[in-house]
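Model it.
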Amino acid sequence: MITKDSIESAYCFIHQKWRVYKFSTMEWQKDDIEYAIAQYVEGMDRQLYAAIAHGKQDFLTDHRSFAYDMQKAEERLEEFILTKQSNL
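Modeled.
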């Protein structure tokens, strides 16, 4: 079972990193964010990761699709938060 806390924690971390990444013009900063997200994903609840990855094996860890994956991760986590709140 995916807990509300794990969803909210993941959303906060990804939301914050995505906002910086999206507007950054510094490649080193983007690289640092990609590394931080990859590290976060390694320790992330596996059920939650699978749910937001939608079957994509390298979700949030492939440099070529990182920006797209971050946007999707934020959107999917936000949907989960809204769903959990409506179930309370």
